[in-house]
Amino acid sequence: MLREDPHARFEDAFLRRRFVSGRREFAFISTRAHRAIVRDQEDVPVAVAEDAPRTWWMFRGRFFWEDDGLGPDEVRALLHERERRRRRRIDRAVDMMHADAAGDAPRRESLPEDVRREVFRRDGGRCVRCGSDELLQFDHVIPVALGGSSTEANLQLLCAPCNREKGADL
Ligand SMILES: [Zn+2]
After folding, report:
1. Distance from residue 166's CA to the centre of ligand 1 (Å)
2. Mean pLDDT calculated for residue range 25-50
3. What's the CA-to-centroid distance between 88 and ligand 1, angstroms?
4. Residue 161 belongs to what domain range?
């Protein structure tokens, strides 16, 4: 288990520093040792304290503890993976929000969420006619009234003006 420790910090104490996590206080270290930690943790996680089975790590200004006996590379890999998952979650949320906004257009049909998301992704979040990324709507290439289905293959992203134009052409 690897967790961020929001209660961890280095505490100043008359020409020395010591690492503190909540009410746990660790041995004093010299300002020189502290400077080395602060420098190194920009590149690689640095173990700053140990209270078995926990080890505390500092990495890019944040503190973490783990109790799996990890090495610096493993801590770094875990944090990297976590950050990637977090980014993916945010990207997905943004996509969904755009897809929802697009679906709020007039003539709303209840398209399944995964279909909307897939069409939105495939069309790059832009109107397939003019490339606009505003006022997007899900458009049936062949209208439902003419037998078109609500599948990815028959759906496309159009901005509202292009959609109106298309409607006028039909
Ligand atoms: Zn357009």
Report:
1. 10
2. 95
3. 28
4. 79-169
- pLDDT at position 88 is 87
Measure 109 CA to ligand 1 centroid, in angstroms: 20
Do 113 and 64 fall into the same domain? no
Element (H, E) at 16: strand 16-21
Average pLDDT, rounded, for the chain: 90
Ligand 1 centre distance from Cα of residue 84 (Å)? 33
Q: To 5 degrees, how large is the angle CA 94–CA 100–CA 101?
A: 90
Q: Residue 84, SS3?
A: helix
- Asked if 117 and 50 sit in the same domain, the reply is no
**Tell me: the pLDDT tens digits for 2-12?**
999 999 999 98
And the tokens for 118?
């897939």
Asked if 46 and 97 sit in the same domain, the reply is: no
Q: Is the pLDDT of residue 80 over 90?
A: yes
Q: Are both 49 and 98 inside the same structural domain?
A: no
| pLDDT tens per residue, range 92-125 | 877 777 777 666 555 555 788 899 999 999 999 9
Cα 136 to averaged position of ligand 1 atoms, centre (Å): 8
Q: Cα(127) to centroid of ligand 1, in Å?
A: 5
CA of 158 to the centre of ligand 1 (A): 5
- Of 34, 53, 70, the one marking the end of a domain is 70
Rounded to whole angstroms, the Cα distance separating 66 from 77 reads 13
CA of 108 to the centre of ligand 1 (A): 18
Q: Which contiguous run of DSSP H or E holds residue 32?
A: helix 31-40
